[in-house]
Amino acid sequence: MSKIIHRSLRGTLPFAVSAQGVYLTDREGKQYIDGSGGAAVSCLGHGHPDVLAAMHAQIDKVAYAHTSFFTTDVAEELADTLIAKAPPGIGHVYFVSGGSEAIEAALKMARQYYVETGEPERSIFIARRQSYHGNTLGALAVGGNEWRRKQFAPILIDVGRVSPCYEYRDRRDGETPEQYSQRLGDELEGEIQRIGPRKIIAFIAEPVVGATLGAVTATPGYFKRVRQICDRYGILFIADEVMCGMGRTGSLHAVDQEGVRPDLMAIAKGLGGGYQPIGAVLASSRIVEAFRKGTGMFQHGHTYIGHATACAAALAVQKVFARDKLIEQVQSLGAYLEKRLHETFINSPYVGDLRGRGLFRGVELVADRATKKPFDPALKLHAKVKSEAMNQGLLCYPMGGTIDGVTGDHVLLAPPFICTEAQIDEIVDKLARAIETGT
Ligand code: PLP
């Protein structure tokens, strides 16, 4: 029996022994097409020669140098590259090892900003229900996935809560998408008033919701309203782009399509493309300037921040994006994926909603399309679809169960940007078979 504490302590996992392009192979020689890039990570697929070469070269030079002693060329160049493409106002980057660490760092930066600028009474974050921001304690506290939080709730900080922007289930009959955005803005403003505006540090949200709802995009004007409200009360806006960022939705950052400027932005997953564990916080210049004028530091730090080999991998990913025009490819391939999903599921009695942007797509499964009635959670449909998909040789990312009283099953697709249309066909066909068998 394995000595690893795997995600599930029941059952066994196949052993991955090789991975190339969009396929992984297990020890028995079975091939799986990577329809979800793991968990929206492997944007360049597997075994990309440029990334491997960059990592090898860096390991030969300096694999790791502790950031209390040194900086490195690759970390500086990666920072310059990311800042050149960041939303206006973002001027600095803080490298970490993954998404949860990026969220922890962003929360602490936001808090320190108000301590440095003379508003230490600000101590509360507002976040959305049915969100996921990571599994470390701060990230779990702001996250709104009750299933993940439940047993740890007594040791989590208190957070203000508002509804997610989940049009399929929550927009009312007769309400336009714009009116729905307005109503959600009113709800946020109500929560700010309830807590007390001068007690609030920041509002945090995923621009496109990933791991709890499956590629749920916001309605028009929603994030603009959020930005206005944050500005009105002097509250920071933290965009969690750990899953939806780094080109996944057809622009480098998902907020680029919302026309808003976050104060802090967490990125990870596609940043290193799975070649190395790396995440980052992109921070507005005003925050870092406040630190510089105040204590002269960000009071945080982990052993592996700015890891040279991880930075080399992420820099190579960025160079491949630019050289091979991969963000444009996400747009065209994303449109193809959307078309194929619509064609395939148009008459499916169990597919209630198809949504998402670029190569970040969600399929919501329902027992009744007309009433949107979800499947009984006891059926664990998402788990069945996942194992059926694996039987078919497809890796996809189903999720479900009861989250904040809302029950639903969703499948997330996040294929590598280097897919061909034929591979997209293979993913969609296998998913259709898995859903058919699973339901
Ligand atoms: N934030 C979002 C939006 C995520 O989807 C995730 C992971 O799925 C995280 C944060 C946490 O990232 P990690 O698993 O790398 O710690």
TrEMBL record:
Alphabetical list of CDD domains matching this protein: OAT_like
Pfam family, one: Aminotran_3
EC number: 2.6.1.76
Family annotation (InterPro entries): Aminotrans_3, Aminotrans_3_PPA_site, PyrdxlP-dep_Trfase, PyrdxlP-dep_Trfase_major, PyrdxlP-dep_Trfase_small
GO cellular component, one term: cytosol
GO molecular function: diaminobutyrate-2-oxoglutarate transaminase activity; pyridoxal phosphate binding
Enzyme's top EC category: transferase
Family per similarity comment: Belongs to the class-III pyridoxal-phosphate-dependent aminotransferase family.
Pathway: Amine and polyamine biosynthesis; ectoine biosynthesis; L-ectoine from L-aspartate 4-semialdehyde: step 1/3
Protein name as annotated: Diaminobutyrate--2-oxoglutarate transaminase
Keywords (A to Z) from UniProt: Aminotransferase, Pyridoxal phosphate, Transferase
Cofactor: pyridoxal 5'-phosphate
